[in-house]
């Protein structure tokens, strides 16, 4: 994934996390999903058309469509009021693909850090599947926090490292990335605990 595209993936994940936390309305988040979704469909198409049939280039660009179609799907649902089941079932397909892309980062591209990042995205899409397709509403806030935090740690941070030429990958960096991913999931799980409901007052004092 290009560093520029990754930066805006971080931005839209941050926005969608806020939407899942009910901090911004869905229609307010739709614009960013349209912008980034469109970018993540147009850019890989241009890359593939200019690849000259190079399989490594085509493979690298193909994963961008998973993001593009997800964000366009989110925008469609928010603007039309459509239910989320379709996006939820699409998300389990994307989660499975993300696992494959993660494995390929280890085996073909020798990039453990992005292998871990792809695996963390697989977890995120699996959460979308649980919330949207299976109706696990109790996970919505946890999914929102995880989405928001991944926007920072798998989008904005690595994008800035790539843009400034300071990105490094290897076994040690991969282990650090995996540890950060676990911490992010735990923090999201804690912050996203369902809000406690107030106990009803007794009808009369004893």
Would you kindly provide a written description of the structure presented here, covering whatever features stand out?
By secondary structure, the protein is an all-alpha fold. It has one domain (3-191): AmiS/UreI transporter (Serine Threonine Protein Phosphatase 5, Tetratricopeptide repeat). It has eight helices and no strands. The longest helix is centred in the N-terminal third of the chain and has 24 residues, at 26-49. The termini are far apart. This is AmiS/UreI family transporter. It is found in: Cell membrane.
**Strand/helix succession:** HHHHHHHH
Named CATH topology: Serine Threonine Protein Phosphatase 5, Tetratricopeptide repeat
Rg, please? 19 Å
Largest sheet: none
So what's the overall shape?
A: globular
Percent helix: over 70%
Computed structural class? mainly alpha
CATH architecture annotation name = Alpha Horseshoe
CATH superfamily: AmiS/UreI transporter
Q: What is the domain total for the residues?
A: 1
What is the CATH first-level class name? Mainly Alpha
% residues in beta strands: under 5%
Count of helices?
8
Given as residue ranges, the uncertain stretches (5+ residues, pLDDT < 50) are 198-206
Number of strands: 0
Q: Please give the alpha-carbon distance between the first and last residues.
A: 66 Å
């Amino acid at each position: 994934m290009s560093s520029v595209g990754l930066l805006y993936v971080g931005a839209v994940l941050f926005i969608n996390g806020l939407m899942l936390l009910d901090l911004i309305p869905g229609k307010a988040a739709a614009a960013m999903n349209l912008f980034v979704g469109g970018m993540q469909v147009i850019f890989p198409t241009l890359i593939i058309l200019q690849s000259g049939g190079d399989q490594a280039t085509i493979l690298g660009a193909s994963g961008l469509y998973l993001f593009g179609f997800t964000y366009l799907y989110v925008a469609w649902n928010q603007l039309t009021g459509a239910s989320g089941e379709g996006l939820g079932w699409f998300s389990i397909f994307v989660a499975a693909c993300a696992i494959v892309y993660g494995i390929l980062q280890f085996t073909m591209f020798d990039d453990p850090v992005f292998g871990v990042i792809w695996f963390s995205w697989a977890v995120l899409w699996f959460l979308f599947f649980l919330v949207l397709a299976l109706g696990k509403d109790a996970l919505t806030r946890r999914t929102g926090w995880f989405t928001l935090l991944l926007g920072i740690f798998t989008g904005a941070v690595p994008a800035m490292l790539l843009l400034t030429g300071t990105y490094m990958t290897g076994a040690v960096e991969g282990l650090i990335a995996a540890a950060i991913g676990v911490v992010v999931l735990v923090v999201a799980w804690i912050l996203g605990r369902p809000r406690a409901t107030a106990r009803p007052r007794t009808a009369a004092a004893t």
